Fold this protein.
Amino acid sequence: MIEMSSRIPLPYTSKILELFKNPKNIGPMEDATIVATAGSPACGDMIKLYLKIKRIDHNDIVEKASFESFGCAANIAAASIVTEMIKGKSLENAWKITWKDVADELGGLPPIKYHCSILAVGALKRAIRAYYDKIKEKPKWLPKELTIEEKQTMEEEEMIKKIYKKFMYLANKP
């Protein structure tokens, strides 16, 4: 008996497929000013974002950006496009990038993959917050409250921890 796969191919744009096959700015950065991670390897989607930041005339500018990704095509494409979108921008302007901006830049994402652009922007916002924590500054434009992307990233990470914990309990149950 022949079994058919129940998986339906996702309708990825040509831009997502291109960035998946040929990601831009991939790999660790030895001289990064700050590194931030979002996601969980337990769910298969994780992004580590590296930023090299240079201060020019009281503006913090993203001089270089790179990433490492563990995940699907949409996750790799989202991380790749974020690094392209922020190069040369001030951290204030980079902060304004939303998950929707990333999805739009990719030509759209299937709804089931929105979390990939949320993780990419979550990693970016974590990196920016970590940078200002590191240099002990709080710019006026940086909100005290977490953004929607930061909250959703944390919720996804917490959900994965709970699922993983339950899985490990069941796997080790006699």
